Amino acid sequence: MQAQKRRREALDLIALWGDAAGQAELGDPGAGEGTSAANVSMLPLSSPSQRLVQIRRPKKCTCDEMFSELMQSFRTERAQQNAWRQKMAEFRKAENEREERRWEQEQRRWEQEERWQQRVGRRQDEMLRLMQEQTDLLRRLVELQERQQEQSLYNHPPSSPSSISSSP
Asked: Distance between CA 7 and CA 15 in Å, rounded?
């Protein structure tokens, strides 16, 4: 695609040189001055084919001049291409830096979430341990109460209805 564009530009340059040369070389032999391509049709003794040949007559320039002009065109295009590449490289670098910052932020969020989960897990473990201790404590209290009731029954047998009535 770029090769075709360069070819078109080169042909355009050559056509421009040809038009400029043709316009400069056209002239009234008697007057000794140049005429433009628009004024070629005004020449009295020229046929249409002669006018066309005069308009299309290539500029007589050296190959070195044409080569220098083409090389300058390619240098300009290459400079523009390099500037574009530089901008794209800068854009990619900036995009990579943004992506890296996003990744670091996500990583920090994951680490914070993980620390939070660890805290929650430790709290839950502490709560379970505390509840287990309380359950053990309640079980011991219940056992102690039962023993005390057994001992009170053992030390003080239940009174019979007859003993209740005989008491003063």
From this structure: 12
Query: Could you tell me the pTM of the whole model?
Result: 0.36
85 backbone dihedrals φ, ψ, rounded to 5°: -60, -40
- Higher pLDDT: 40 or 77? It is 77
Question: Under a CB-based contact definition with an 8 Å cutoff, are residues 26 and 42 in contact?
Answer: no
* Lookup: tokens for 20: 């400029």
Distance in angstroms (rounded) separating the CA atoms of residues 69 and 64: 8
CB 14 within 8 A of CB 7: no
Which of helix, strand or coil describes residue 26?
Answer: coil
pLDDT in tens, 91-141: 999 999 999 999 999 999 999 999 999 999 999 999 999 999 999 999 999
- List Cα–Cα distances, 132 to 123, 128, 152, in angstroms: 14, 6, 30
